[in-house]
Structure formats: C-alpha cells, structure tokens
Design goal:
By secondary structure, the protein is α+β, with helices and mostly antiparallel strands. Helices cover about 20% and strands about 35% of the residues. It has 2 helices and 6 strands, in the order βαββββαβ. The strands form 2 sheets. Strands 2-5-1-6 form a 4-stranded antiparallel beta sheet. Strands 3-4 form a two-stranded antiparallel ribbon. Strand 3 and strand 4 form a beta hairpin. The longest helix has 15 residues. The protein starts with a strand and ends in an 18-residue tail after the last strand.
C-alpha cells in the first residue's frame, strides 16, 4: 500500500477530484494549506501586483492499494497540470498496515 500526498492548486481541485473518482479512488482527505514557493518574483494580474511567496494550495492525503498506485499518480499528474510554475508536488511513501475500526478489517480490504 502507498500513501500519496499531493499539494495542488486550489483551482484544479474539482478536476483532480473527478479524475480520482473516475479511477475509483473514492476516499481521500484534503485540507487548505499555505506554503512558501521557490519562485521569488511577484506577478501582475489585472493590473494588481501580488506576491507569490505565500501560496494558497490544497493538500490531499490518499492511501491506495498497490494496484491503484500507478493509476492514482497518473490521474493526479494529468488533472492537476496547468504547465505553469506552482502546479504542485506529489510525495509517495509506503504504508505498512491499515485498519478499518468499524469492521476490524486490515490491509487492502480496509480501503474498500
């Protein structure tokens, strides 16, 4: 099993959510976060200059069984992509075990 953590643009969240549902990844957690990006220059939008050092993003935490790993990464890469600086990052780590509290199921069965 893998834990996939993705930091994406808030504006791409609906597309990402639809892409995950399309591949049957129907459970994940998310929350709004603020981070500091690599780009140090400001931008002008509609005549207003704004700083890009503090960036509003959405953080997703997804745990999937191994057969869903590649599909999940592909869905995230394709749906969160804009081609511009600040599209986000994806981090992957191994999960040793999972438990469903209500049924006491373990492993991949607890993710269904």
């Amino acid at each position: 099993m893998k834990k996939i953590e993705a930091i994406i643009r808030k504006s791409r969240f609906e597309e990402v959510k639809e892409a995950l549902h399309a591949i049957e990844v129907n459970f994940f957690s998310y929350w709004d976060v603020t981070g500091v990006g690599n780009e140090k220059q400001g931008h002008v939008y509609r005549g207003v200059s704004y700083s890009t050092t503090d960036i509003q993003r959405r953080f997703l935490s997804i745990v999937v069984s191994d057969p869903f790993y590649e599909k999940t990464i592909t869905a995230l890469l394709e749906s969160a992509y804009t081609g511009n600086v600040g599209d986000g990052k994806i981090f992957v780590s191994n999960i040793e075990e999972t438990y469903r509290i209500r049924t006491k199921e373990t492993g991949a069965d607890s993710l269904k």
